[in-house]
Amino acid sequence: MPDSHRQVRQVFLQTIDHAADAQAPLQSLPQPYLLFLGDTVEEGFAKTAFGLRDWAPDKCTGEYALVGAAVSTGLPAMTPQEAQRAGARSLLIGVANSGGVLADNWLPALVEALEAGLDIVSGLHMRLSESPVLAATAERLGRRLIDVRHPPRDIQVGTGRKRSGKRLLTVGTDCALGKKYTALAVARAFADRGVSTDFRATGQTGIMIAGGGVPMDAVVSDFEAGAAEMLSPDAAPDHWDVIEGQGSLFHPAYAAVSMGLLHGSQPDCIIVCHHPGRTEMLGTPGYALPSVEEVIDLNLRIGSRTNAAIRCAGLSFNTAHLSAEQAHALMEAESQRLGLPVADPIRGGAAFDRLIDRCLA
User: Fold this and answer.
1) What is the pTM of this model?
2) Which distant-in-sequence residues (6+ apart) come within 8 Å of 224 by Cβ?
3) Is residue 172 in a domain?
4) H helical segments located in 122-251
5) Chain centre distance of CA 325
6) Residue 83, number of CB atoms within 10 A of its CB
7) CA-based angle 351:313:281, to the nearest 5?
8) What is d(CA 205, CA 6) in angstroms, rounded to the nearest whole number?
């Protein structure tokens, strides 16, 4: 990771504590973490580990991968025993397989972590305690099995009531292309300008970074809008909640969470996140990515149901696969074509400044 990118992300750590204080924390997570990568071979399925590395490096001791893994965060490779001696307090499952289940071939490594004196933190759909082996081992050793991806029990259905304060929601052309990173970077930029702001986490990685939030993809559909209302309550008129988006209205599997989050967030503005060059929806071959124009139009039409004043502030491009020159040329051309700011928040610069200006206008 380039040093400039690392510095941009680390600056945000100065504002994380404020955001966490403003949200009801799920629980006190044992930190620092040893990031578990399992046997993952695709980076897209290790976004939890990469998110923690990029936005909370001070909470990460190292990584632990199984034989056959082809993904690395670049952190020091450690066994659970080595990590525990280095100060780690838990092993955090940094990958999400299809269905979010505990893979059988992970269990020996997870048991090893418990025996080394580490708790286990998971953002999977499957609860750690559903594994008899892990449950019995944790009970025998007095270790904790901590599941983050489970919502509070007191969520109500959405009311549609207009709340005070201002809200920004990141939306996308697809999954896993930068909605969380964009929200984190925008919240940091707002705070740098002296704007009262909170990052509102809606996924397991964001929750692990911020210390609170609601895992929206684990909420029953009828309560999605209500969960979003709970996540972003009434606030001062000049306060901004920057809400991490989920899924895409166009995704054949995950559109439901995007719809509920859009209605319940009642965003005053959206930022559309896109990965230039991606042609198919992640995990669903044969489904083409929509154009950014389609995404802007549909999100504004649906979002206007609960906030008639919703607007698109601009676009966030994930250009990590491009050179600086290629990225600049592409974003400048798309900005001219669309009449909106287009920026890569991780690259920053004047383009990102213009996007922030438009958000706050």
Assistant:
1) 0.82
2) 158, 216, 256, 257, 259, 260, 261, 263, 264
3) yes
4) 132-141, 179-192, 204-210, 224-231
5) 28
6) 28
7) 90
8) 18
